[in-house]
Write a structure and sequence with these properties.
The chain has 434 residues and is an alpha/beta fold. It contains 14 helices and 19 strands. The longest helix has 25 residues.
Length: 434
């Protein structure tokens, strides 16, 4: 049998899509390294220019090494034709063909299927298991109806469409029987779940909450404008993690308008304070360096950022994407130099890092509920220390000193009663298996 290696770039949706492809392979062996493989399937990301460069470089390297490279994912629309015509990849197929991967890999001819059925297709695959994992990503929807000026994703993922509730619940029930006890609901824009099926993400979460074997429900990125009173009611559920990731993208009212965002800072502040008062940690996405982000606007954004009860942040520097409104209108607004954008990225990262430690100190007497996932090596003064790694209910890292229980404890839940608070994580001093 031919051996296949899957290289996944980008987001949680791509990780799930790779699992869908693996589940639809019958006559191939999936391997853990490129060196073992005859065929490499690249599941690409195109959210930034850097992502595009990494994908192209990876494809070229392994084609030159004699591998049969197949290209799919979000980069197909913008890069697929060029990579195929220049012989950088052997084959190309769009998102909606991933369940046909067996046929695609078996075709003796080069395959070029770039046109996606992006506004119609929903996968039907039920994953029988997630190999080696105790946490599982569960895709609940695909696509996005927003029109943020900087974002290329709606054009490659299509309009918002929801998976059927039964499909999602059946998937989780099956995985719960194979050692998965934590699920992460993911998608392009999960807050839009149900807009096309006359239901609501809160109703879905209530039903997942009742599935035996599932101990924690995590949520992917939410849009603040989609969090309504019905959603806020689920924050009382025991199995819901005490952390939400709500994508603000910026904290300047002027920049939010330039980005064509639906949220406003005043509403964002009220929402974050309401959720934080329920004991939740809060994360967000944040873009710096977008055209029009003057120093005055950025100073205002920092003032506003300081007001938010944030604990986690995923910041990145704006990357122009051909075809977006931001790209088309770039000459109308002042650009931001690269070194300035990097300094701004560091500044907001440091602010939230300090807020995170402040949050952990404020809650230091709370018990932490953790799911042990495996090992992590920490290097200090050129000395390697090995720990068990985990995440607590606030989405903070917790490390446990390693002992001979490692293989026994992976996949187990534990309660941490005492711990030390470090800059980037907590270290468990006293814990018991739940």
């Amino acid at each position: 049998m031919s051996k296949v290696y899957f290289k996944t770039f980008g987001c949680r949706s791509n990780l799930y899509d790779t699992q869908v492809m693996i589940s639809n392979l019958k006559n191939y062996i999936v391997v853990e390294s490129e060196e073992e493989a005859n065929i490499i399937v690249i599941n690409s990301c195109t959210v930034t220019n850097k992502a595009d460069r990494e994908v192209r470089s990876y494809a070229r390297k392994h084609t030159n090494a004699g591998k049969k490279v197949i290209f799919t994912g979000c980069g197909v629309k913008h890069m697929g034709k060029n990579l195929f015509n220049n012989g950088v990849v052997h084959g190309v197929f769009a998102h909606s063909y991933k369940e046909n991967i067996e046929q695609i890999l078996s075709d003796s001819n080069r395959v070029f299927l770039p046109k996606d059925r992006i506004n119609k297709h929903i996968d039907s695959t039920i994953l029988p298991k997630v190999v080696g994992k105790v946490r599982a990503f569960i895709k609940i929807q695909e696509g996005c109806n927003f029109a943020c000026s900087y974002c290329i994703i709606p054009s490659v993922r299509g309009m918002a469409r929801s998976f059927q509730e039964k499909h999602i619940l059946d998937q989780i029930k099956i995985l719960s029987q194979s050692n998965v006890s934590e699920v992460i609901l993911t998608g392009t824009n999960i807050g839009s779940y149900g807009v096309d099926t006359n239901t609501h993400i809160a109703d879905l979460i209530y039903k997942i909450h009742n599935i035996d074997g599932i101990n924690r429900i995590r949520l992917g990125s939410l849009e603040p404008s989609q969090i309504d009173n019905k959603f806020l009611e689920i924050l009382e559920l025991d199995k819901l993690e005490r952390h939400l990731h709500i994508a603000l993208q910026h904290t300047s009212p002027t920049m939010l308008k330039i980005m064509n965002r639906k949220n406003t800072f005043d509403n964002d502040l009220l929402l974050f304070e309401k959720i934080a008062n329920k004991g939740f940690s809060l994360g967000t996405d944040y873009i710096v360096g977008h055209h029009g982000e003057t120093q005055e606007i950025f100073d205002e954004a920092i003032t506003n950022l300081m007001k938010l009860p944030l604990t986690h942040i995923h910041p990145f520097i704006y990357s122009p994407r051909t075809g977006t409104k931001s790209y088309i209108n770039s000459d109308r607004l002042e650009s931001v130099k690269g070194n300035v954008a990097k300094d701004r990225l560091k500044q907001i990262s440091q602010i939230v890092k300090e807020k995170n430690k402040e949050f952990r100190n404020k809650n230091r007497f709370n018990q932490l509920k953790i799911l042990i996932e495996g090992q992590k090596i920490i290097k200090d003064n050129n000395v390697d220390s090995i720990y068990l790694k985990s995440l607590d209910q606030y989405f903070n890292k917790v490390l446990l000193p390693l002992d001979n229980k490692d293989n026994i404890l992976k996949g187990k839940w534990a309660i941490v009663n005492q711990y030390s608070i470090e800059d980037d994580f907590n270290i468990a001093l006293d814990y018991e298996i739940a």
